[in-house]
Design brief:
Largest sheet: none
Strand content: under 5%
Radius of gyration: 17 Å
Number of strands: 0
Distance between the termini: 23 Å
Number of helices: 6
Structural class: mainly alpha
Shape: globular
């Protein structure tokens, strides 16, 4: 029987550290629901910020698309395959937010604030059950590691290397 070899890739270390405070099944289940929702609502909150008129010259340019591009660069520094997953996830988040945005900026803002607050309440309940603080309280980059942590489970399940 072979023993697992510890990896020193940055993504492996970050996923391991993130996972150390997400062992309880209830907390994990809450994260499977709330991490994507929180990401979706953060995008919605940022998408709600009015843009300068020159943004109108570039299709799909908003503060949220700039934030998504920065997050994409971060993912590229960690893992090519997770970057592909993040592009797909980011595309779905963008489409969903644009659909809500078409009903009005204020509607997107109010809905994002409300759902964001509910999702974070659930996250803190999960961490209370776990008995450990959320990882982002230690390091803000863990706000972006949450989606990667979920994706790495999906990748493992379908046999893709992350």
């Amino acid at each position: 029987m072979s023993t697992p070899v510890a990896s020193n890739r940055k993504i492996d270390l970050l996923l391991e550290e993130y996972g150390s405070s997400h062992k309880n099944m209830v907390n994990k289940s809450i994260h499977w629901i709330c991490v994507p929702i929180i990401f979706f609502t953060i995008f919605g909150l940022v998408r709600s910020i009015p843009t300068p008129s020159f943004f109108d010259q570039v299709p799909c340019l908003s503060w949220a698309s700039i934030l998504l591009a920065v997050a994409l660069l971060y993912y590229m520094s960690l893992s090519f395959s997770l970057t592909i997953g993040f592009i797909l996830f980011g595309g779905l988040v963008t489409i969903g937010n644009e659909f809500i945005f078409s009903s009005g900026r204020i509607y997107l803002l109010v809905a994002s604030i409300f759902v964001f607050a509910l999702a974070w309440i659930a996250q803190f309940i999960g961490h209370g059950i776990e008995g450990k603080k959320p990882s982002f309280l230690k390091d803000l980059q863990f706000l972006l590691i949450g989606p990667a942590w979920l994706m790495h489970f999906i990748y493992k399940k379908i046999g893709l290397r992350y």
